[in-house]
Amino acid sequence: MFMTQSNTTETARASTVKTGLPLPSLQPLPVVGEANAFLGLVDERYLLSWARHQDEVREVQRLRHQVFAKEMGAQLSTLTPGLDEDEFDPYCEHLIVRAQSSGEVVGTYRLLTPAQAKRIGTWYTDTEFDLSACGIDRSRTLELGRSCIHADHRSGPVLMQLWTALVQFLAQQ
After folding, report:
1. Among residues 19, 106, 150, 172, which is most buried (max CB within 10 A)?
2. pLDDT class for 92, splitting at 50, 70, 90?
3. Its pTM surpasses 0.85
């Protein structure tokens, strides 16, 4: 299966995409495998889950802003100060790693499935690059992006669990 992963620095600098489509209602967000929203313990320090509600997506957007704008110095075009948000967020699945001790979101990945890309009318990558010559089967594409981990938690367990969850997601598709 072909996966497209947006470059983090490219993703961080992207401006809000103008698709002309109204944003869908965000409460609650569609969840990959509703029964599997909670994916379990990463290790004794971390919990892994899918975002289920808008407030969880806002936590993810806050972490992304912290990492991309404050830490990496990216100039973000966003409607809400302190958040990294764009028109794709409501259409994406958001994988979350939380610190078990505080409940704070410390890691995330954003996934755009073919069905959701069809709903919004494009892929995020298409707003940055022309991949038309690549011959990609978009019906079998999963776009990954906006991945980041809080600086205090950039350790093997967080990254490995994000990747493990992605592999499990692909195996279910």
Report:
1. 106
2. very high
3. no
